[in-house]
Amino acid sequence: MDNKVLYVESSKHTYPIIVEPESLSSLYSKIEEHSDSKASRFFIITDDTVAPLYLDIAVSSFPIKDKVDTYVIPTGEASKSLSMYEKVMTAALENKLDRKSLIIALGGGVVGDLAGFIAATYMRGIPFVQVPTTLLAHDSSVGGKVGINHPLGKNMIGAFHPPSLVIYDPKALMSLPEKEWRSGFAEVIKHGFIADESFLTWLQDKIVSFQNISMDVLTELLIRSIKVKVAVVEQDEEEKGIRAYLNFGHTLGHAIEGEAGYGQLTHGEAVAIGMEFAVRFSEKYYGHQLEADKYFNYMKDLGYSLDIPSDMDINQLIHRIKLDKKSHSSKIHFVLLQKIGSPKLVEVNENLLKAELTGKGGV
Ligand SMILES: NC(=O)c1ccc[n+]([C@@H]2O[C@H](COP(=O)([O-])OP(=O)(O)OC[C@H]3O[C@@H](n4cnc5c(N)ncnc54)[C@H](O)[C@@H]3O)[C@@H](O)[C@H]2O)c1
Ligand SMILES: O=C(O)C(=O)C[C@@H](O)[C@H](O)[C@H](O)COP(=O)(O)O
Ligand SMILES: [Zn+2]
Q1: Of 140, 252, 283, 322, which one is least surrounded by beta carbons within 10 A?
Q2: Residue 4: how many CB atoms within 10 A of its CB?
């Protein structure tokens, strides 16, 4: 795989995504090369799992340490909150960041979404760099969706604020626990479902467990999956239309995440359940089979549980689905698949949805 730098053309600027082993240790020089090394200050936001692993490596790459401030949030989805937003904002102000400062998100999607939203709103917007350290963050670090959760809904408070650079060191993923590989891999599979069935068969062939994935395979996987995302966000940056396809599996997935309590299920675990449901619902909606069982069996072999948790109240899930950002005028919208690789955003009838969710959908 030779092309390890991808470029995203956003309406604000074009930014590179560098996928390169060991790039974390040359963070500053990458910023110098591709972003703003002349920034007045650098504010690295990370979490308390990533900090002991990678914060020193990142900070060591900076020649002038006095210009670097750090802020460590508690690990986990619960940190994507208004209260954490206020704390980090306060730290940014106390550290005297100005409009020429650069925020650096070092971590997974939680850090990236929160830090990106701080960047989007600090003094009405300053630049930021994404330094993803999870598999899932191949998705979250690209495309500029940043934000935090509200108890009533996932990512309900946010902005579109593209990063100025994404530096992805696949070696950093080697410390991920299996659960987080599984979580991130759900978004990889999502990209296959919505855009490219041959990617799914390639994954089946190359990834039979989350142990011992070679750096070459991992790099190719990241690049292929990121390319799917880039192709969508370049056409529809602010989700006026086809960007909603990236929400495949998320309508139910987000409802499940919220209902379980943020952080009880990983994002990818919830999205995996949502994808299986969306495929089943697509088959009912379009009246033909998608032949997707082989992919769901593959996911089960990789340890995914694809059933809606049995303790979940279907009416509560529907209530949450109605608050989803794709809903409007009380109409529920779902991303369904006409066939694998051909998503559509469709309005769905609440009663049909309820019947399917309760397993009484019929054919
Ligand atoms: N903005 C977007 O487009 C977008 C896309 C997909 C998901 N998301 C959001 O991303 C979030 C999920 O991201 P995530 O799965 O990366 O969660 P996360 O940031 O919570 O990371 C998962 C866990 O892995 C730990 N971790 C991170 N890097 C590690 C490493 N290298 N080694 C060991 N442990 C490490 C973290 O501390 C955390 O415990 C959700 O909030 C989701 O809504 C956003
Ligand atoms: O980038 C997008 O667009 C996505 O939908 C990617 C999703 O994987 C991601 O979880 C995103 O945060 C969901 O966005 P939301 O608008 O449904 O909150
Ligand atoms: Zn997602």
Answers
A1: 322
A2: 17
User: Is the CB of 155 inside a 6 Å radius of any atom of ligand 2?
Assistant: yes
By C-alpha distance, which of 275, 216, 224, 277 is closest to 247?
Answer: 275
Per-residue pLDDT reduced to its tens digit, 283-327? 999 999 999 999 999 999 999 999 999 999 999 999 999 999 999
Domains contained in the chain, number: 2
Mutation test residue for ligand 1: of 113, 148, 178, 189, the one with most atoms within 8 Å of CB: 113
Residue indicated by tokens 């306060």:
90
The total number of residues written for the chain in this structure: 363
| Complex confidence, ipTM | 0.99
The answer on pLDDT for 37 being more than 80 is no
CATH of the domain at 287: 1.20.1090.10
Per residue in 236-290, pLDDT (tens digit) is 999 999 999 999 999 999 999 999 999 999 999 999 999 999 999 999 999 999 9
For 157-218, give the DSSP string.
Answer: EEEE---SEEEE-GGGGGG--HHHHHHHHHHHHHHHHHH-HHHHHHHHHH-SSSSS--HHHH
**Do 135 and 19 sit in the same domain of this protein?**
yes
CA distance 358 to 324: 20
What confidence score (pLDDT) does residue 362 get?
52
Q: Could you tell me the residue range of the domain that residue 321 belongs to? A: 226-357
How many of the other CB atoms lie within 10 Å of CB of 98? Answer: 12
Residue 301 lies in a domain: yes
